[in-house]
């Protein structure tokens, strides 16, 4: 996909947009049609189109979580770790915390003190 000036938009490569929202349109080429039909017209599925809850959610990388309300991947916030693949963000266990965003495993959670 190229614009009139020949510059490839960042969201086609899965790059982060302002606000840390990540779209991966390469892996889900009918995403826009699906979002329109599923969210606006309340149709559950489109023949041949990807199902955002499964296909697009799985495009979240480690350090990101899937937000089904926004139908997008977001950076994992501090205090959580995110394994990606559409999994929810997971809080650090009791008595532990991490102060960094985009953490990918529970080992990032350190004892609070």
Write up this protein.
With 113 residues, the protein is α+β, with helices and mostly antiparallel strands. It has one domain. Helices cover 13% and strands 18% of the residues. It is built from 2 helices and 8 strands. It has a 4-stranded antiparallel sheet with strand order 1-2-4-3, with no helix packed on it. Strands 5-6 form a two-stranded antiparallel sheet. The protein has a two-stranded antiparallel ribbon with strand order 7-8. It is elongated, with a radius of gyration of 16 Å.
| Oligomeric assembly | single chain
Kindly report the average pLDDT value. 70
| Structural class label | alpha+beta
The run of helices and strands is EEHHEEEEEE
Report the C-alpha radius of gyration, rounded: 16 Å
Biggest sheet, open or closed, and with what strands and sense?
Answer: 4 strands, antiparallel
Helix content: 10-25%
Strand order of the largest sheet: 1-2-4-3
Q: Strand portion, in percent?
A: 15-25%
How many DSSP-defined strands?
Answer: 8
Total number of helices: 2
How far apart are the termini?
A: 50 Å
Uncertain ranges: 1-30, 40-46
| Count of spatially separate domains | 1
Overall spatial form:
elongated
